[in-house]
Design a protein that fits this description.
The chain contains twelve helices and two strands; from the N terminus they run ααααββαααααααα. With 247 residues, the chain is mostly helical. It has a two-stranded antiparallel ribbon with strand order 1-2. The mean pLDDT is 91.
């Protein structure tokens, strides 16, 4: 299937209002990139996308600019934009940021979940297991995203937005981890169970550490796959910061 056919098959963005076209285009393309639907190296042809999405080129250029600022696409001089490849340094920095923020989110949520939220978390774990068994990975990804939202539910305002942003940006590395290490799901499930139990309890230090360790497993494994010689400096420092062992 050609790149044009792939993009056309992914659907059109939902334009909420003509005034938000560039933001809606950005959100749509961002989801396609971070979920892995648009693979690294995919060329993004502006005229073609404008035709497929039924929009003008002006908001599309603005969406491209925002994606480039986020590091999701690259556009060298006189070359068409393309989806950036997986990058070991980016992975290290991205997951270190996520570890620090999401561990904090888990800590401030500990002992503050309602009974309904805890039950929803348990239900999400069961449904994730079912989706995994059915090989329904888009469904699994949505359930997984919601599970992490539950575990950081009392992180509000800027913290919640930052956690959500870094979580979305790291999804393509998570998908890579799962593709390259299909045996990782059993371990991740055990970690999810332990995290939910801790967040539903009263030990905020434990909640933060479990969340940090869970995220670090993905980061360090994929980092070794991408660049065996590159140490996970930022991830290691974030783990030390969360656990209180930072020198």
């Amino acid at each position: 299937m050609s790149e044009s056919s792939v993009i056309a098959s992914l659907g059109k963005p939902m334009i909420r209002d003509p005034r938000t076209t560039s933001l809606d285009l950005h959100a749509h393309l961002r989801r396609l990139i971070t979920s892995g639907a648009l693979a690294p190296g995919t060329i993004l042809k502006q005229a073609e996308l404008a035709r497929i999405f039924e929009v003008s080129r002006t908001p599309l250029r603005e969406a491209f600019r925002m994606l480039q600022e986020e590091g999701l696409i690259e556009a060298d001089l006189n070359q068409r934009p393309r989806v950036r490849g997986l990058d070991a340094d980016e992975l290290d920095q991205l997951y270190a940021s996520r570890i620090a923020l999401e561990a904090l989110g888990a800590r401030v949520t500990t002992d503050r979940l309602s009974a309904d939220e805890i039950e929803e978390g348990r239900s999400l774990l069961r449904r994730m297991d079912e989706a995994r068994g059915d090989q329904a990975m888009p469904e699994w990804l949505g359930l997984h995203r919601r599970f992490h939202q539950i575990c950081t539910a009392r992180a509000g305002g800027p913290l919640a937005r930052a956690i959500s942003s870094y979580g979305e940006q790291s999804e393509r590395y998570l998908l890579t981890y799962q593709a390259w290490h299909p045996d990782s799901f059993a371990r991740a499930h055990r970690e999810h169970v332990a995290i939910l139990r801790a967040v539903g309890g009263s030990d905020s230090m434990l909640s933060g550490c479990l969340m940090a360790e869970h995220l670090s497993h993905t980061a360090m494994t994929v980092l070794r796959d991408l660049s065996a010689d590159l140490p996970a400096r930022a991830v290691v420092q974030a783990l030390a910061m969360v656990s209180g062992t930072l020198d």
